[in-house]
Amino acid sequence: VPAKHVQRMLPSPEAQRTSFALRRAFAARDWQEVITFGFVSSETERAIDPDAAPIRVLNPIAAQHDVMRTSLLPGLIGTLASNASRREARVRVVEVGRVFRRGSEGIDQPLRVGGLAWGSALPEQWGVKPRAVDLFDVKGDLEGLVTPRTLTTVRAEHALLHPGRAASVLVDGSPVGWLGELHPRIVKEFELPRAPVLFELDLASLLTIGLPTARAVSRLPVVRRDLAVVVADA
């Protein structure tokens, strides 16, 4: 067989997963993927982050798409507002996409993964009392997605998040993004019934999953003792 017709197996690194595999993992945890515009309204960007300096589009396709997004937040909040106005009681959406920021050597276009959870923590059912989703529900999903790596949170301040309900997210001790409840100012600005829980992380930090590590089994058998102690009443 000529060499040019020989088919070869492509390498598949076990410690890495694709963006598609990550999106499937989110879907398995009851998150719905959305794809929103990279073009957003300058008014929306200003309402979310007054200090943001978005990149203006020279020839926008519409007046409400005149700047490039600096985070995934505008699209996620817009999706929530659309669903809430139609009386949807539970929203859990995630997006993988680029954001556009001014860098020291031009325009930075990092890939990010962002999510928004709002409404009840679980679908309506008879076996569980209804309760609103909170930061720890979302953190639990993120912990499961990065296993066997370790995800931790550290209290932090963030302009977009509620003071005292915001955290920096670390994976194996390295900061990768943020997690928290939306700031009341932005909740009021977008006329939302209540605040959602959001996160935005570097995509690359979630694509490295590591490999399982074998540990030697203890050579000593398990020992159980049942002790009964008699003491005086005094």
Q: How does this model look, in words?
A:
Helices cover 23% and strands 26% of the residues. The chain has 234 residues and is α+β, with helices and mostly antiparallel strands. The strands form 3 sheets. Strands 1-4-7-11-10-9-8 form a 7-stranded mixed sheet, with helices on both faces. Strands 2-3 form a two-stranded antiparallel ribbon. A two-stranded antiparallel ribbon has the order 5-6. The chain is globular.
Taken as a percent bin, the fraction of beta residues is 25-35%
Main beta-sheet strand count, sense and barrel state: 7 strands, mixed
Question: How many DSSP H or I helices?
Answer: 6
Strands side by side in the biggest sheet:
1-4-7-11-10-9-8
Q: Which residues sit in consecutive blocks of at least 5 with pLDDT less than 50?
A: none
Distance between the termini: 93 Å
The oligomeric state of the chains shown is single chain
Helicity range of the residues? 10-25%
Describe the global form. Answer: globular
**How much is the radius of gyration in Å?**
23 Å
Along the chain, the helix and strand elements come as: HEEHEHEEEEHEEEHEH
Q: How many beta strands in the DSSP annotation?
A: 11
Q: Pairing-aware structural class of the strands and helices?
A: alpha+beta
Mean pLDDT across the residues is: 90
